[in-house]
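Input sequence (331 aa), recorded before submission:
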Amino acid sequence: MSSVDDLELQLASVQKDKGWQLCCGLLTQATRLIDQELKASEISALSTGRVLRAIQRLCSLLFTYADTAVSHIKDIKLLASLAQLYDRLLIRPLKEAKCFEELLDTLTLIADFGPNAKGCVVERFFRRLVDVILATKSAHTFALRMETLRAANLLLEHCPQAVRVHHHTDDDTTRMATLLKTCGDYEMQVALAEAIFRLTQRSERATGWFDSPELTRAFLRIRDADFEIDCRLFLNSLNQSMGSRRGVFSFPCKSIFIGDFQLRKPRDSAYVDYWVDFNTGSKSVGFFCEQSVAEEGEEEDVWETVVVKQHMVDNYSVREESVDDVFFCCC
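Predicted structure, C-alpha cell format:
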C-alpha cells in the first residue's frame, strides 16, 4: 500500500466534528507527501492531486476547529510546501492543469478558516497569482489564467484591508484595467473589475485607466450591491468604444434554448435585457441564466454562467426573421 493510499484510508475513518487531533496528524502526513513529491525530478500529477483532495477534505473536517487548524498549518509549514508546488506546476502548466486547479481549490479552502488564514494565504500567494493573471497569452492558457483570477477574487473577499493594501501595487491595478480592455472575454472582464474593486478604494479608481471621462464615470457608478447589473452597463459601453480593437460583442436576445430546454433569464428587475456575449479572446459564447435547480438552503436567486466553447460547435447559422436575427448553434 502506498503512502497516499494509507492517507486516504485513515481519512475515510474520520467522522465530521470528531477526531480533530487525527485530522491534524493527517495534515502533517499530507504535507510530508507534498514535500516528497517536490524532491522528485518529475511531479506525479495523479498522486499529488489525491493528496491535495485529501487536504481539502481535512480542511472541511477541521472547519469547526479553525484556530487550531490555522495554528497547525503554520507549524507544519503547509503553505510553504504548497507555494513550492505552485511554482513547480507552472513549469509545465498544460500537463499539470488539473492538479493546478486542485491546488487553487485547496488554497481557497484553507483561506476559509477565517481572516487570519486568508491573510496568510494572500501574503504567500497573491504575487504568484497576479503574475499568472497578467502573463502574456503565450505564457499561460486562457483557462488557467481565468481559474487563477477566480481564486484571487475568492481570496481577496473579506481579506483584511491592511493585507490587500500591502501586497498589491498601483501597477497591478493599472495592468488589470488594461487587460480588462484587451482580454476579449466578458466573464474575465467582470472578474478583473471585481479584483480592481477589491484592491482599491473609490478615490483610487478615477486614475485615467479608461479613454474617456464617460467611461470613467460609468466605472465609478458600479455599486457593490448591484455589481453584476452596473458592471454590465459599464462593460457594454467600454466594449462598444473599442472600435476595431473590440474583443467582446454583446447582443440582447429574447430567449435561449439548449435543445428543447429553455433557459431562464435571471430574475432581477434591473436586469432588463437577456445578454449573450461573443468572446473573440476565449473563442466562446457566454451568458448568464437562472440556476435551474436551487441548492438546498439557498434563499436568493443564483446566477449561473453558461459557456459554449469553440470546440463544442459543429456548425452555426444566422438568419433574419422579420425584424429579429436568429442565431443557431449546433453542438
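Checked by second reader. The longest helix spans residues 20-39.
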